[in-house]
Amino acid sequence: MPEKPAFSMSRTFDLQMLWHPLPCHSGIYSLYHVATTLLKNRVSCEVVVVVVVVVVVVVVVVVVVVVVVVVVVVVVVMVVVVVVVVVVVVFVVVVVVVVVVVSSSSSSSSNSIINTNIKSNSDSSSSPFRSKRVPVVVKDIVAFENDAVKQRHWC
Questions:
Q1: What percent of the chain has pLDDT over 70?
Q2: Where is the chain membrane-spanning (predicted)?
Q3: Chain segment 72-125, per-residue pLDDT in tens
Q4: Do residues 52 and 35 touch, judged by C-beta distance below 8 A?
């Protein structure tokens, strides 16, 4: 079986013209340099193609993995931020509700105590603050004095 000829100089020249505008530090230029070096050293075209394809696949896989990792990190950070914001909002709402409930319950309980005292004072006959009791007290004092006067007359 005859040996396959390597690329001719004209093909190499065409490749050089194709990749010439790329900067020397780019990955594509490095890949081109490896491929042309292999071809100049009489490596078969199939081997060069396999090397180029393997390098391209590895680079693509690395880029995809990096992009996926960056996206996952960004999503995780966003989820953590959202969870923290939700927890803070829920905490603030709970604190506000508790403060409002405690404040309203304490004010309503103090109001109910005052209302209870007012009702019990108005209903109780032994209370000195009862408005109907004042004339009775005066009447009792007058009656007591009258009794005292009657007793003096008897003496």
A1: 47
A2: 47-73, 79-102
A3: 999 999 999 999 999 999 999 999 999 988 887 776 555 555 555 555 545 555
A4: yes
Extract the tokens encoding 147. Answer: 């009794």
Q: What is the pTM of this model?
A: 0.41
Cβ contact 57:33 at 8 Å = no
Return the HEC string of 71-86: HHHHHHHHHHHHHHHH
Cα 120 from chain centre:
53
Taking the alpha carbons at both ends of the chain, their separation in whole angstroms is 166
Distances (CA, A) of 72 to 6, 64, 67, 82, 127: 46, 12, 9, 15, 77
41 vs 6: CA distance, rounded Å: 8
Rounded Cα distance, 59 and 27, in Å = 9
